[in-house]
What we know:
64% of the residues lie in helices and 15% in strands. It is α+β, with helices and mostly antiparallel strands. Helix 1 (2-33) packs antiparallel against helix 3.
Amino acid sequence: xxxxxxxxxxxxxxxxxxxxxxxxxxxxxxxxxxxxxxxxxxxxxxxxxxxxxxxxxxxxxxxxxxxxxxxxxxxxxxxxxxxxxxxxxxxxxxxxxxxxxxxxxxxxxxx
Length: 111
C-alpha cells in the first residue's frame, strides 16, 4: 500500500511540475513576443497595420499591411523552450529519484 501512495504522490507532483512549466513557458513567450513588432523592428514610415509576430523556428515574422514582411532571426524563444524542457526534466528526475529512495527505505525496513 505504501508503494502505491508513494507512486501516486510522485505522479501527481510530476503532473503539477509539468503543468507549471507549461504555464511559465507560455507566459514567458507571450511577454517576450507581445510588443515584438513595435519594439524590435523598425516600422516603415506611415505603417500602422501590423499582424504578428509569428514564431517560425529561429525566426520571428512581422507582417505589415503595405510593406514587405520583416523577418528577424532570434534564437531566444527556442532557447526559452529548451530551458523549460530541461527544467521540467530535471524536476521530474528529482521526483523519480526521491520516490525510488522512499521505496528502497520501505523495502529495507520491511526486511
